[in-house]
């Protein structure tokens, strides 16, 4: 008899969902948008696996709604801050994510943010699109160079390293701060105060954990150069957004580029961050290419199929077991989950 798997979305890119449906009975959320927890709880009853996105809350209530049949929750996402890992471990449920498949694509977008913010590309494009470009002037849209600048990576995991590789084409000097990553041929390991003081571009690549929440606040922004740019493709909560807005308005730093926000999505209630002229904002599209999003779903499906077939999961969360029924060894806060 086929096992039941809940997919929290019906419209996933690539062929992963169809592959899953060929092997398991997929019960899915068929509405548009994001299901609320009560809907998911009803659908989850008696399933063996759950295929979820990074913004689906996976907590004790959902795990209990599924019940003792549940063996694996596979996120089609690298980030796992919406997962209660302790609750999953207590219930012997394997939780997996998608490292490896999205680093290059997300690093591409990180570099886009760096270029857009430092070269003021948003303002320049908006001026042209609004029909307000009336003359070439030597002083219009003057930005700051990216080539030859110092790049500071906070978190030096797969994505941080992929950003470092790209920076070599721009002749950048690279520093990183990550207690788990020593110097390598691309980058020098430094403490956080040194990185903040020396970097022209600070890029965040840490997961959101209690230890990294508001890692960048007023004091850290004040420690950066007035010509510095801050970018983030990790998670919104790592930056204190109110402090960042004040820093941009007061000229404490030059510019910022954000793909992630504390409150997502922003629809009717646009954050003042979006209107801030020294800020580039994008709607959480770091991994949004056809190939990469399909690969994320594929890896999540592989994880479900392996666990349900009795094999170890390919990419369990850091510190989590690869087979059901084992406890977890929680990471030190903010530890090697670097993105
Ligand atoms: C990730 O993989 O963490 C992206 O932010 C999408 O959830």
Q: In words, what does this structure look like?
A:
- It is a single chain.
- With 339 residues, the protein is an alpha/beta fold.
- The longest helix has 19 residues.
- Helix 2 packs parallel to helix 3 and helix 5 packs across helix 7.
- About 1% of the residues have low confidence.
- 47% of the residues are buried.
- It folds into 2 domains: 117 residues, NAD(P)-binding Rossmann-like Domain (Rossmann fold, 3-Layer(aba) Sandwich), CATH 3.40.50; 179 residues, Rossmann fold.
- 32% of the residues lie in helices and 14% in strands.
- It is globular, with a radius of gyration of 21 Å.
- A 7-stranded parallel beta sheet has the order 8-7-6-9-10-11-12, with helices on both faces. Strands 2-1-3-4-5 form a 5-stranded parallel beta sheet.
- It starts with a strand and ends in a 31-residue tail after the last helix.
- The site of (2R)-2,3-dihydroxypropanoic acid (DGY) has 7 residues, from loops.
Defining key terms:
binds (2R)-2,3-dihydroxypropanoic acid; Rossmann fold; 339 residues; alpha/beta; seven-stranded parallel β-sheet; five-stranded parallel β-sheet; 32% helix
């Amino acid at each position: 008899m086929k096992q039941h798997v809940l997919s929290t979305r019906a419209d996933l890119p690539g062929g992963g969902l169809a592959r899953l449906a060929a092997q398991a009975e997929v019960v899915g959320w068929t509405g548009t948008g994001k299901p609320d927890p009560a809907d998911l709880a009803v659908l989850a009853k008696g399933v063996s696996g759950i295929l979820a996105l990074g913004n689906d809350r996976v907590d004790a209530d959902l795990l209990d709604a599924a019940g003792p049949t549940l063996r694996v929750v596979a996120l089609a996402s690298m980030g796992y801050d919406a997962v209660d890992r302790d609750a999953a471990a207590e219930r012997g449920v394997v939780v997996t994510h998608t490292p490896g498949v999205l680093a290059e694509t997300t690093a591409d977008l990180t570099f886009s943010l760096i270029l857009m913010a430092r070269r003021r590309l948003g303002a320049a494009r908006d001026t042209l699109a609004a029909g307000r470009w009336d003359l070439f002037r030597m002083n219009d849209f003057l930005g700051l160079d990216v080539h030859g600048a110092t790049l500071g990576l906070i978190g030096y995991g797969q994505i941080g390293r992929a950003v470092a590789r790209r920076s070599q084409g721009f002749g950048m000097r690279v520093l990183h701060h990550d207690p788990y990553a020593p110097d390598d041929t691309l980058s020098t390991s430094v403490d956080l105060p040194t990185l903040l003081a020396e970097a022209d571009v600070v890029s965040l690549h840490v997961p959101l954990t209690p230890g990294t929440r508001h890692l960048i606040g007023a004091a850290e922004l004040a420690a950066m150069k007035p010509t510095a740019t801050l970018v983030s493709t990790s998670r919104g909560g790592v930056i204190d957004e109110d402090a960042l807005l004040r820093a941009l308005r007061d000229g404490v730093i030059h510019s910022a580029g954000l793909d992630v926000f504390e409150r997502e999505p922003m629809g009717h209630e646009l954050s003042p961050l979006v209107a801030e002229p020294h800020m580039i904002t994008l709607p959480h599209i770091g991994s949004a290419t056809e190939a990469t999003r399909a690969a994320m779903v594929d890896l999540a499906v592989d994880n479900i199929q392996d666990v349900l077939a009795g094999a170890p999961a390919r990419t369990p969360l850091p510190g989590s077991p690869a087979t059901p029924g084992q406890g977890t060894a929680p990471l030190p806060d903010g530890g090697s989950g670097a993105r």
